[in-house]
What does this fold into?
Amino acid sequence: MIRRLLLAACFALLSYGTQAQAFEPGYLVRSTGDTLRGEIENGFWVEPPTFIRFRFSPSSPSQVFQPRQLRVVSFTGDRYFRYEALPIDYQAETRIERLSHSYKPSSQIDSLLAEVLLEGDVSLLRVAQPGAQHYFLVQQGRPTLELSERKYLRDLPKTKNVMMDANNYKGQLLVYFGTCAAASEAVPTTLFTPKSLVKLVELYNKECGAARVPGRQWLPQAKPRRRLSLQGGLVAGMRYNRIESGSPRLAGKCVDCETHPFAGLYADLLQPSRTTAIYGELTLSRFKSQGAHYAYDPVTKAESTTEFNYRATMGTARIGVRYFMQLPREHQLLLTVGYELNSVFESSASVTTTSGRNYSVPKDDLIFASTTLFPNVGLGWRYQRLTVNFDGQMYIASKEDDLSGIFVGSNHALRLSLGYRLSKNPDVTLKAPAPLP
It folds into this structure.
């Protein structure tokens, strides 16, 4: 039954076809003023990216740029970013576990790759940080205005830790647009949302701006088309088991110091910015072990212990987190951390006693080693559809008689695997080349 389900899942994945990484047409403007047209790797960023990968064509090698090396990053008909020196308050926070007990704004000038929501006489930019959204009003000849979410904790009489909202964006906007009656009248009804802020700035540009035009907006494109990306495929390899018997009566010696093949399916649920993923895996493998079955006859009060050897099929489920580090030429370095759960299938067990005769044993006596609380750790390499990974898992040793054995064990399994992505990359879309700015 397990094999049938595995084959069915493989054929379902095959139906999706295969594609490469998510490169999309666009252009870069370098800090020197040169414009490069080609394809940009779309990471569906939420926070500002730390690097930009670019190539002139699908067949050409990719280049990696730091944000400080660029002025503009623009996808065809999609998101648009500018590298700007902006006043940003990194202390602004909305996560309750990180709130301070005082309100102390502290802005500093930092150069950032900011997303453009509106470009005009007054432009509206956005930078997302883990704890707050920051918006910037940029106009030539005027200081840049920062608007940011912010909360803090305040102790009140008979009450402790009341969360206060310190976002005074309406007061800031009234001062900034004080000379424009139309914009000032609209400030009280403006919400702290991209749509509402864009509408207000457009109103100012149209009524009071030098060109009297609303400006060009990228609001529909500013929302990433896809926050998550699910990809999956086949995984196979070899695993070396160094385990003891699961029976306490046979504790101590290694019963499976051998290498066994394994195969199955894997899936990556890539998170926004595509630098981390929730990882899952289902595999089948064989292992060998020894057991001891204890029996007691209540009539004769006779006790007996039957020792036996067996080989069985084991199903392994793993779940964890993967971290991706970019390497040159579209290669990636993977760090995987996770936990595993094993289940032994009785139907595939081959059991003999130590004397050589066949023996029927209850399923509960077919045992694989128990994992420690310390997770398995893996290091790998990925290029397009291929993933090579080396990982290790520790198991509890029978001789450990203190709590340390629950966390670190001398029993272990080492695996070397090859993964092949079968599903298509949902991030990949085909577009026309980007027009020059």
